[in-house]
Amino acid sequence: MTTPSPAPLAFDLDGTLSRRARSMTASAIREILKVTQQPDVISFAGGLPAPELFPLDEVRAASNRVLDVYGPAALQYSTTEGHAPLREWIGAQAGIPARNVQIVTGSQQGLDLLGKVLIDEGDVVLVEAPTYLGALQSFQPYLPRYVQVPTDEGGIDVDALEEVLKTTRAKLLYAVPNFQNPTGRTLSAERRRRLVELTAQHGVLLIEDDPYGQLRFTGEAAPSLYSLGLDLHGDADRNHVIYSSSFSKTLVPGLRDAWVQAAAPIINKLIQAKQGADLHTPTFNQMIIAELVDSVLPRQIERVRQAYGERARLMLERIHADFPAGVQTTTPEGGMFLWLTLPQGVDTQALLPRAVQRKVAYVPGSPFYALGGGENTMRLSYSNATPEQITRGIHALGDTLREALGL
Asked: What's the whole-model pTM score?
C-alpha cells in the first residue's frame, strides 16, 4: 500500500514579494501607451523619438563596418565598463578621463543603478515638482523619502531649495535641467551655478539627467551642472555632480546606449552593480554607436532639432487657436515635451477616457509628482507626431477640454 503524497502547501505568492517589490508601481505612461496602440488614436503621450528621422542607412553601414573591423569580437562578451573607444569619446566631450565614464543599457538603467548604489532606506531624495516619472520608478524600490522642491518657468526654485536644506539633511537631488521631462522647462544659467554651489555646501549629491540637452531649437545654451561642478571642485574625482545622458534621443533609442559620468568611488560601485544586473551593455551596439559619433551624430542632431522645433511651434500655435481660455502652457526651447495647466477642478486623469473617445491621448500630470498634486495638469509630446496629426489631435483635445469646462 502506497502512502499518499502530502497535499501541497497553499502559497500566498503575493506575500512572498519583498518590500521593495511591493513598493513598485506600473508606469502611468506605459499603461497609457497600451490604450494608444489603436492605429486611429493620435498619441501625444509617449516621449518617442520620430522613427522617420532614424538614420537607417548610416546604422546599416556602421554595422557592416563593425563586423568587418572587429569580426567575432563584436558579438562576444565584453567589459562591464563599456567599449573603450566610446568611453574615450564621451570623456573627451566632457574633458574628463574615460575611467570616469560608465556605459549603461539606456539611461533608465543608469538611474536604477544609481539608486542601488546611493540610496539607503529612508534617505531623503530631493526632486523637482513635477519630475521625471521614470526616475521615481527607478528610485522607489530603494525606499527613499521624497521631498519635493517647487519649480517655475525658470526651473527648480533655488530659493525654496535653500529653505529646504536649512532643515532637511538630504542624500541627493535629482534634476532634469534641460527641456525638463515633463514640463519642457529649462533651468536658468544663474540658477544652475547657485544650485551646484548650494548642494556642494550642504553635502548633497546632485544627479543631472540630461537626455535632451543636444536638442535645443531656440535660445542660448547654458553650461551643464556637471561642468559647473568640475569648475568648482577642479577634479572629476571630487565632483559631487553625477551626469547621465543617452544616445536614444539623438541617434536611435533601440540600441539602448547611454552613460553615467561620476567620481571614481561612484563609478566603481556602478561597475559592480551592473555586473549583477546584465554584465555589460551589448558589445555590438556600443561599437555601432562609436562608429557614428563623429560623422553621423552631428548631422542627426541638427536634423532632429529642426523637426522638433517645427512640431513644437505648430503645437503651440494650435493650442492657442483651439483651446479654451484659462489653459496655460510652457514654451520649450528644445526637447520633446510641453506642459499644460488647466483651471482648478479639472482632473486630467478622469478626462483621459473622454479624450481617447475623440481619438487623442496625453499623459495626466499627477504621476509626475512624487508626493501627489498636479491633478489639473498634463504632458504633451510633439516629437512623434506629424504636422497633420498635431493639427487634428490638438483640435480634438480642445473639444474635450471645452466639454469638460461646460463651454
From this structure: 0.93
